[in-house]
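Encode chain A's predicted structure.
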Amino acid sequence: MLPKLLSLSIALAFSSSLALAANNQSTASVVSATASELTLEQVYRAKSYAGQAASQLHFSADGRYLAYLWNPFGENGSDLYLHDTLTGSTSRITSPTLMKSYDAPEDWLRFDKKALQKEQEESERQAKAEAHAAYLRGEKVDLSLWETAALAGIKQELADKKTKDATKKAMLAADAAKEKIAMAALGKTNKAEAGKADADKKDEKADKSSEDDKAKEIWELRDELKKKLVKERLKASDLYPGVENLAWAKKANELIFQYRGDLFRLQAATGKIARLTQTDKAERLIGYSAEDQGYLYMDDKRIYSANFENGDLRQLNRELIHPDDADKKYSIKETVLSEDRRWMAISAEAPDAVPEAGKPAPAAERQVEIMNYSERFASAKKVPREVSDDKRKVLASALYIRRVSENNADPKLQAPPVFSNEGGDVWFEMSKVSWAKDASRYTFSTWEREKQLLRIYVGKADENLKPTLVFEQRGDVGHEVVNVIAPRFTPDGKSLIAILDQNGYRQPYLIDSDAKDGKGKAQALLKGNFEAHHIIGFSPDSKTMLVLANRDDFAAMNAYSVKLADGSMTALGQAGDFHRNSAMAENGQQLVSVAGQWSKRPELQLIKLDTRARSVLTDSHDPQWKNIDLLRPARFSYANRHGDAIEAYVFKPANWQASDLRPAVVYTYGGPLNDRHIVETDSFQATAYLFGMYMAAKHGYVMVAVDPRGHSNYGRKFSDANWEQVGKPQTEDLQDLASYMQKNLGVDAQRIGLTGWSFGGFQTQYTMYTSPDTFAAGIAGAGPTEWENYNSWYSGRTIGKTERSKPTLRRYSLLPLTTGLKKPLMLVHGMQDPNVLYQDTVNVYRALLENGKEGLVDLFLDPDGEHGLDGVVKAKGRHKKYESFFLQHLGVAK
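Encoded structure for chain A:
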C-alpha cells in the first residue's frame, strides 16, 4: 500500500496551489513513535525540527525595549520584533506582508514562487524517503511515480513553449505579410524572387514542423528535466530574507533597521516606520550619529553621514591620498568610529604590485582543482588554498587615526599612519581597533606567529601620535589569538581588559594600560580552572562585568556577573543551560541570551539581573519533536591514564543493565576549534545526539559521545595536547574510554565501533590504524589524512611547526599508518569538498589497497557533496549507511 505522503506528493507535484498543504502533511503530522517504530526518516526529516535562533539582540538606550531578529518555525527570513520590558508585551514589527509594499512586484513573484518550490521539494523529499523505506520493507510501492509526474510536467512545459513559439511566429509572419503587401503596393517587390523565397520558407517550415512534431524520447525528457532542476536550483537570494541589521538611537526610543540594502526608521512607541533610503546600491547600517540628528551607513568601504532634517549627505572617511613616488600606497580596508562619532581608526593595506609591470601580483594562495561530475563530462573548478609550505604574501598594513571633520570644514593635510607593518612572507594578525567610550583612547592587539609574539597597544585620540606598546608576551598563547584576545576598555575608560590564558584557561585579564615598552602586567580577574573568553558587557559604573563561562559545568556555558574588585562570580542563568548570542542592557539591569539544553531546546531568554527573574520570549522549534524524543543522554566523565577528567555522554536503551554485553558506538571529534566541542548541553548534533538516540532506542546499542584531549574550551592542556603528536593523546583517551565502557556501561569489548567527522574522521582513522584491537569497526567522515595539504591557518596553529620551504607536516600523514588496519573501516567524503579535499580520502584509500586492506575498507561518496555532504546524500541517507555498516559488523543487541 502506498503511504499517504507518497500519493499526496504525486498528486501535488506540479500543483503550486496545494504544495503548502502537502508540506504540512509531510512535516507536521509526525506520529508519536515507540522505540521499535522509530525510523531514520522520522529522525532526519526533510524539514528539520529545529527552528531559527534569535539574533541581533539590542536594548534601547534606556533599557526599556529589546529588539531582535527572529521568526517562528517554518517561516522564511528573520523579521524584527520589539519586546517592551515594562509591559511584557512583544510586537512583530516587520513581516512579508508589510515589507512587500517596499519591494518591486517582480521580487515578490520570485519570493512566492521560490518559497513554494522550497516547501514542495521538502515535501517530496520526505515522501520519497518514506516510500523507499516502505519498498525495502516489502510493501508494493511504485518508485517511478515521481519521475513519471516530473517528466509529464516537462512534457507539458515543452508543449506550452511550442504553442507559445508558434503563436509568436504566426504573429511575426502576419507582420511580414502586411509589410510585403505594403511594399508590393509601392511596386518595389520582384515577383519571381518573392515567389522563390516563399517556396524556400515553406520547405523550411515543413522540415521544422516535422522535427518539432516528433515526440521526445524518455532520455531526452530526462535531459530536459535535469537542465530545469539545475536552472531552478534554490539560492539564498531566492527567498524572503527579512531584516538584516538594526541599531538603536543614542538617546531616543527609536531605531533604524536594514532591509534588502535599504534603511528604515522605526519609532518604538508607535510602531511607525519611515523609509530613509531607496537605491539600487546596498547601504549597510552603522548606527545613529552622536546626537541622534542623523545616521551613518556605508557601501563598500566608504562611510556616509546623513542628516534627518536637511538631508545633508557627506562622506566621513575619504580615501587615502599618496604622492606618485610614495613607497606604499595604502587604501582603506576598514574604518572603526568612536561612539561619540568624533574619531575614526582607519585600517589600510598597500596593494602588492609587481614593480616591472605595475600590475597586481597573482593571489598568494595556490589554486586547487575540484572536479564536478554532474555533467556529461567531468569539469574542474578552482578554489584558493594556502598550505603550510606556501610562501606568504601578507600585504603591508597601516593604521591611521583621523578626526571626523565638521560639516563644510576645509580638508586638512593627511596625517601619516600611527602604526604599520611591512607584511611579506610572515604571519601577522591585527585585531579590530576598540575605542574607549569617551573616545580619548583606543586599543588593539597584534600576533606574529613565527616570533610567537603577542602585543597589546594603547593610543591616544591624536592623528600624529603613535600608540604605546603596553603589554608584550612571547611564547605560545593558544591556537586562537587576536580574535579572542580582543582588548577593550571598561565604560569609564580607566581599565583595559583582554582575554589571555596565562593560567591555562582563556579568561579576562586586567592590563596595565599606562605601561610602556610592553612592560605592563596582566592581572587575572577570575579565580578557577574554567574558560570565560566571551565578555558580554559592563555595568555603567564599571564595577561589574558580565561573562559567559563554563565554571560549573564544562558542557554548559552560563552567564555570570563578576565583581571586578575581587573576581567573585554569580551565576545568572539556569544550571545546565548553554548560553549563546548574549547581550546586556547599557543600564546594567537586564541580560538577554539564546539559551537552553537537551530537556528544553534553546530559546531567547530575558533575565532581570536584580531578581534573576527569567522570561522566555520565543517559541522556535517544531512541537512534533516530542513525538520522537524517546531518550535523553546521561552525562558521565572518566579519568584517563594521566588523571584528566574526560567528559562524555551516553544513550542507554530502555532495558539496559550494567551486566549487559551490548554493541556500542563512540562518536568523537578530538580537535581544537574556537569554542566548540561535542559534549554541549544544547547540541543536538546529527550523529552524536540524533543517531545516538536512534541506535539506542531502535537497536539497543549503547551510544557514547566523548571529548578527548585536543578539544577547545577545556583549557590549554586539552587544546594544545594535539601539538606535534596529532591523534596520539586522543587515541589514549579513546582506549581508556573503551575500558571504562566495558566495566561500567554494559558493553561487549569486542563490539565497540568508532566514528567521527572532519578532524573526527582523521581521529577515527588514526585510532583504527595505531590501536587496531580497541575498536571493532570504524566510520571516518571527511578526515584530513595529509595535514601538509590542509589550510595553513589551522594546521600551523594546531598540528605542528611548519617551514615555508618544504611540507614538514607530512610527518603526520596517515598514509604510512594504514598498514595497521585490522578491522572494517568505511571512508565517507563529499567529492566537491573545498575544506578537506576529497583527494585526502582517495590517497588514503589507495594506500589501504596497496597494503592489502581491500577486504576491510569501504568507500561511501557523495558526488555532489561538500564538507557536510548534502549533495545527493542527505543526513538520512548518510545515517542509513551508518546503521547498515554497524549492524553488519557489530551485530544486534542480545
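The mean pLDDT is 92.
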